[in-house]
Amino acid sequence: MAIRSLNKVMLIGNLTRDPESRFTGSGTQVCSFGLATNRSWKDNNGEYQETTEFHNIVAWAKMAEICQQILAKGMQVYIEGSLNTRSWESDDGHVNYRTEIRVDNLILLNDRGKSGAGGENSGASEDVSGKSPEELLEEMEEEESSKSKKKGDKKKKSKGKKKGKKDAKKGESDKDEDPLEDDLPF
After folding, report:
1. Which of 22, 111, 119, 125 is nearest to 64 (CA)?
2. 74 has which bridge partners?
3. pLDDT digits 0-9 by tens, 57-84
4. Domain coordinates of the chain in residue numbers?
5. Sign for the pseudo-dihedral over CA of 145, 150, 151, 155
6. What CATH superfamily is the domain 9-118+125-131?
7. Which of 153, 147, 158 is nearest to 183 (CA)?
């Protein structure tokens, strides 16, 4: 019987740098950034001490796309994920190790770095604080869907106008037309 194990990390901290994206050879997006967490305590003399830990964070696929779009240096986030250690051999034969946190879940706790979900230059003023990546992804998909729907409505209206003109030229009345015909996608 296999012994169960757990590899779970939960952090609340501030981004130390803007996310950097790259793509693997197979086309999967990877986004990495730094996160700083603070710990404070009272020492034996009764004085407060504080230390900062720096973490390497990595997001893959759709989560990487979301991180690239909404995160910026200085933002406070909640990260949930797992510890991963990778190794590689450098040109001089030395083996290097790097421990990273792979993001499974992310919650924005403020929008200090970027103004809204599209970045600094997007003109978006939407508050993204406290929204999960899934909620942000849904909103982005809804916006894209509504934009394409509006484009489709414009095409339907212009086709309807042209058809109406042709019918008027032929002397046919609009009463004979099927009222649902404009709703057809072709």
Report:
1. 22
2. none
3. 999 999 999 999 999 999 999 999 999 9
4. 9-118+125-131, 132-186
5. positive
6. Nucleic acid-binding proteins (2.40.50.140)
7. 153
pLDDT tens for residues 2-22?
Answer: 789 999 999 999 999 999 999
The pTM score is 0.60
The alpha carbon dihedral of 142, 146, 148, 152 has a sign of positive
Q: How far is CA 148 from CA 72, 152, 159, in A?
A: 29, 6, 17
Distance, CA of 126 to CA of 115 (rounded, Å): 8
- 3-state SS, one letter per residue, for the chain: CCCCCCCCEEEEEEECCCCEEEECCCCCEEEEEEEEEEEEEECCCCCEEEEEEEEEEEEEHHHHHHHHHHCCCCCEEEEEEEEEEEEEECCCCCEEEEEEEEEEEEEECCCCCCCCCCCCCCCCCCCCCCCCHHHHHHHHHHHHHHHHHHHHHHHHHHHHHHHHHHHHHHCCCHHHCCCCHHHCCC
Tell me the C-alpha distance between 184 and 186, whole Å.
6
What are 41's two structure tokens?
């305590």
Q: Tell me the residue type at 146.
A: S
- Cα separation values, 107 from 46, 128, 174, Å: 35, 9, 54
